[in-house]
Amino acid sequence: MMNFIIYGKSGQGVHILTKLIGQSLFLSGLSVKDFALLEQEKYGKPIVGYVAADNIDILSNDIVGNDYIIIVDPTLNLTEIVKNADKNTIIIVNSKENIPALKKALGKKHYIDATKIAMEHLKRNQPNTVLLGAVIKLSNKITIKNAKRAIELEIDDKVKENMESLEIGIKSVK
């Protein structure tokens, strides 16, 4: 089983990113469970998205493991977020530079200034499709074709701009 945990604040597209990853993996032929949990239904409050995918039916509701940790908002408590990461965890951080709080964290850290890209192409702070591009590049489970189809299914507006943001995300993650 493969797990993705996405951390951010409501209004940043965490719920949509969760659905995009889940839909992309489903279109790849995997069994998927995805959901997001809000601390409170208020703009700017912490939200966590979970995606589990496997080649067989997923019968458990437990999210076990940290294969991928995606940090949409680097102002959150990063030490707490990455405390269960291991050396194989892929950590994707929405930041243009390395963050000192993550220096000692286990895992393979990758950085992308997804907010800047989203602001340039979408004119709003919703870096979800940019980060989906980073996931495509760093995993071997999601194809560009399936990610673009997921965008068509899950996003109602600015579809062309989101497709462009996806492509830039693929090229920009470090």
In words, what does this structure look like?
With 174 residues, the protein is an alpha/beta fold. The protein has a single domain (2-172), classed as Pyruvate-ferredoxin oxidoreductase, PFOR, domain III (Pyruvate-ferredoxin Oxidoreductase, domain 3). The protein has helices at residues 14-27, 78-81, 114-122, 128-138, 144-154, 159-172, and strands at residues 2-9, 31-38, 46-54, 68-71, 90-94, 108-112. It has a six-stranded mixed beta sheet with strand order 2-3-1-4-5-6, covered by helices on one side. Strand 2 and strand 3 (46-54) form a beta hairpin. The longest helix has 14 residues, at 14-27. It is globular.
User: What does the average pLDDT come to?
Assistant: 91
Question: H/E element string?
Answer: EHEEEHEEHHHH
Count of extended strands: 6
- Overall number of structural domains: 1
Structural class: alpha/beta
CATH fold naming: Pyruvate-ferredoxin Oxidoreductase, domain 3
Radius of gyration: 15 Å
In what order do the strands lie side by side in the largest sheet?
Answer: 2-3-1-4-5-6
Quickly give the CATH architecture. 3-Layer(aba) Sandwich
The low-confidence runs, each spanning 5 or more residues with pLDDT under 50, are none
The CATH superfamily is known as Pyruvate-ferredoxin oxidoreductase, PFOR, domain III
Binned strand content: 15-25%
CATH class: Alpha Beta
Q: Which outline best applies?
A: globular
Q: In angstroms, what separates the terminal alpha carbons?
A: 25 Å
Helicity range of the residues? Answer: 25-40%
The total of helices stands at 6
Largest sheet: 6 strands, mixed
